[in-house]
Design brief:
- The protein is elongated.
- It has a single domain, classed as SecB-like (Bacterial Protein-export protein SecB), CATH 3.10.420.
- Helix 3 (112-141) crosses helix 4 (154-162) and helix 3 packs across helix 5.
- The chain is built from five helices and four strands.
- It has helices at residues 2-12, 46-50, 112-141, 154-162, 166-175; strands at residues 29-42, 59-70, 75-88, 91-106.
- With 176 residues, the protein is of the alpha+beta class.
- Helices cover 37% and strands 32% of the residues.
Length: 176
């Protein structure tokens, strides 16, 4: 009976008798730090924008910019810059700007052609939930309903910016 209990225990732990690290590939990056580089909220017409009685939802314009720069031999600072502008009836309601950054260390055996896509896709994907939360807090504390940004497909953004296929790899290595 003890043998069966041991086998059940191994199956419950997900190891099935194998070494735990045998099936888990090494992550290509490590998050060293995350932080707010710059944050701004502008309410240019507070009395007018807070008293709008129109049931129409405001128009929201969202701009996203991603920048990466080396800070060490295999470490990079990746900055996600989000700007959200709201207007209703051609009147500015608010402008929320956030630069949220992280320092990431990439594994040393990573192929050079993989560096740029990881910096521009995976790193922003890790940063976005925290930046999204900060934008929500900014708008709520500014007196507006919390702005809940939809998830962003950073792979699609990357494809739109750099293309796909061989030409994307060439411009990716030239840009990093």
């Amino acid at each position: 009976m003890a043998k069966n209990e041991t086998q059940k225990s191994k199956k419950l732990n997900g190891t099935s008798g194998m070494e735990p690290s045998a099936n888990i590939p090494a992550m290509p990056l490590m998050v060293n730090a995350q932080y707010v580089k710059d944050i701004s909220f502008e309410n240019p017409n507070p009395l007018q924008s807070l008293n709008i009685e129109d049931d129409q939802a405001p128009e929201i314009e969202l701009n996203i910019d991603i920048q990466a720069q080396p800070v060490g031999e295999s470490s990079y600072e990746v900055t996600l810059h989000l700007t959200a502008k709201a207007q209703q009836n051609k009147q500015k309601m608010f402008i929320a700007e956030l630069q949220y950054a992280g320092v990431f260390t990439l594994v040393s055996n990573l192929p050079q052609e993989a560096v740029h896509p990881i910096l521009m896709i995976e790193c922003p994907r890790l940063l976005f939930p925290y930046a999204r939360n900060l934008i929500s807090i900014l708008t709520r504390e500014g007196g507006f309903p919390a702005l809940m940004l939809s998830p962003i497909d950073f792979l699609e953004l990357y494809r739109n910016q750099y293309g796909s296929g061989d030409e994307a790899n060439e411009s990716a290595t030239a840009g990093s």
